[in-house]
Amino acid sequence: MSEYKPPYQLTDKILSLVAEISEKIGRITQHCNLDAKPHLRKNNKIKSIHSSLAIEANSLTLGEVKDVINGKLVLGAEKEIQEVKNAYAAYDEVASVDVYNIKELKRLHGILTKYVTDVSGEFRLGEEGVFDGDRCIFMATPARLVTELMEDLFSWMKQSHGIVHPLILSAVFHYEFVFIHPFTDGNGRMARLWHTAILTKWQPIFEFIPIESQIEKFQNGYYDAIAKGHIDGNSTVFIEFMLEQINAIIDEISVSVTSPGNYISDYVKTLLSVMEYDIPYTSKEILSLLGLKSKETLRKNYLVPAIQDNLIVMTEPDKPNSRNQRYIKK
Predict the structure, then answer these.
(1) Is the pTM of this model over 0.85?
(2) Which of the four pLDDT bands, split at 50, 70 and 90, describes residue 291?
(3) In 3D, which of 52, 63, 33 has the Cα closest to residue 189?
(4) 3-state secondary structure the chain
(5) What would the pLDDT profile of 74-106 be if each residue is shown by its tens digit?
(6) Given the DSSP bridges, would you call strands 129-132 and 135-139 parallel, antiparallel or unpaired?
(7) For residue 269, what pLDDT is reported?
(8) Bridge partners for 131 per DSSP
(9) How far apart are CA 40 and CA 256, in angstroms?
(10) Is residue 192 predicted with pLDDT exceeding 90?
(11) How far is CA 51 from the centre of its chain?
């Protein structure tokens, strides 16, 4: 097997972002007890799944994805519902999968694409292109080279483990994987899942960081960085892009995971269970969902603690008693 090394350059920007992200991760890990916040792990897993599937044109909303995962009836395309079930099963193994084992990659691809593609868990035999909608970004590696290139990539990862920083290694893998495009279907989803898995091996906190949500927000930039890498013949621009997005999403969620209250009351857990993500609710609507009559009980036992822990936010935080006030689950 050849001593393959994926082409990229360590720019000042990459080194600066790696240092900044590492510092933030260390600070978050030091100041919060993640095991006391299992709801955040599940919430962010659902966000990751919704975003990764949305990038691939799955039309289910975040609320519908949550309902599918919770076993509720959802009216939607059978394939899209199956994609959610598959993704949830695959993401459930992010923390335990051996990210340096190519057989494990194929196994998780089999889980991710079960019932939704004709060839699941095996490398492609035909030619494929990488598309952003109807726009072809580039034609993928010839099928006859896929197995050899994937073996080279995994060999490089194993040799680089402990030498190349995981933030860089994961981004290089992501780009090279998309470039090789080893499967007939599910390549984008697998690349993002494996990226998260590599980072989770480095720092378990990445189970709480929905990188996919950040990619979805900047989807054009994501595809542009891939296309630029193809033109340049290296993954430097893509590494910089991914580090920027990881840095941004860490800032966004840091308040949630470092909130002072490690204990979440049963009241707040119940409140979170009846609210959908990113949907504004009036206090009257929440009272009805909880089966309560007392507004003071709602405020004291449910809303105030949840707001203090940044689990829900007010649409008008400067006017807490506004008649137009709504509450949104983050």
Answers:
(1) no
(2) very high
(3) 52
(4) CCCCCCCCCCCHHHHHHHHHHHHHHHHHHHHCCHHHCHHHHHHHHHHHHHHHHHHCCCCCCHHHHHHHHCCCCCCCCHHHHHHHHHHHHHHCCCCCCCCCCHHHHHHHHHHHCCCCCCCCCCCCCCCCEEEECCEEEEECCCHHHHHHHHHHHHHHHHHHCCCCCHHHHHHHHHHHHHHHCCCCCCHHHHHHHHHHHHHHHHCHHHHHCCHHHHHHHCHHHHHHHHHHHHHHCCCHHHHHHHHHHHHHHHHHHHHHHCCCCCCCCHHHHHHHHHCCECCCECHHHHHHHHCCCCHHHHHHHHHHHHHHCCCEEECCCCCCCCCCCCEEEC
(5) 999 999 999 999 999 999 999 999 999 999 999
(6) antiparallel
(7) 87
(8) 136
(9) 8
(10) yes
(11) 7
Identify the CA nearest to 327 among candidates 262, 296, 260, 282.
Answer: 282
Residue 120 backbone phi and psi in degrees, to 5: -125, 125
C-beta of residue 186 within 8 angstroms of C-beta of residue 115:
no
Q: How, if at all, do strands 312-314 and 135-139 pair?
A: unpaired
Q: What pLDDT does 31 receive? A: 66
Distance separating alpha carbons of residues 321 and 2, to the nearest angstrom: 67
The count of other CB atoms within 10 Å of the CB of residue 9 is 12
Domains and CATH numbers, the chain: 12-257 (1.10.3290.10), 266-329 (1.10.10)
Q: Which residue has the higher pLDDT, 105 or 42?
A: 105
The answer, yes or no, to whether residue 41 has pLDDT greater than 80, is no
Measured distance CA(155)–CA(5) in Å, rounded: 9
Q: What percent of the chain lies above the pLDDT cut of 90? A: 72
Higher pLDDT, 234 or 269: 234
Distance from the Cα of residue 7 to its chain's centroid: 25
The 10s digit of each residue's pLDDT in 208-237 is: 889 999 999 999 999 999 999 999 999 999
- Check if the beta carbon of residue 168 is closer than 8 Å to that of residue 174: no
User: Do 84 and 68 meet the contact criterion of CB atoms below 8 Å apart?
Assistant: yes
Q: With beta carbons less than 8 A apart as the criterion, state whether 212 and 52 touch.
A: yes
